[in-house]
Structures are given as C-alpha cells and as structure tokens.
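Morning. Coffee machine broken again, so started the prediction first thing and wrote up yesterday's gels while waiting. Chain of 59 residues, entered below exactly as on the submission form.
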Amino acid sequence: MGEAGLLDAARRDAMIRMSKFRNVIVHDYVRVDPTIVVQILREHLEDLTRFKVAALKWI
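Came back before lunch.
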C-alpha cells in the first residue's frame, strides 16, 4: 500500500512496527508486557483507523 501511494512513509513504518508487534503477541506472548499493550492502544489506535481508511480506498 505504501508503494501504491495509499500510505505515506510514516504510516507505512507505523504499520510495519505494528505487524512486528502482532507477531510477538501471537508467537511469543510470554514476553508481552501488558503495560506496553495498553500504551499502544491508548497512543496508536488512530494508526489502525488510518490504515483501515487507506485499505478501503485500495479495494
């Protein structure tokens, strides 16, 4: 989506970080710090909303 121009570089990088964090949650959940999860939800939930809007433009 970044290459297609639907996400700017900052959003693309945020989504890459989010997907890496998702992999930790799914595959190595013992290491997950609940405080970090809450912080992400409080401070970066808007990133997911922006991704959704961009994804809907793509289809």
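The two ends are 11 Å apart (CA to CA). Going to sketch it on the whiteboard this afternoon.
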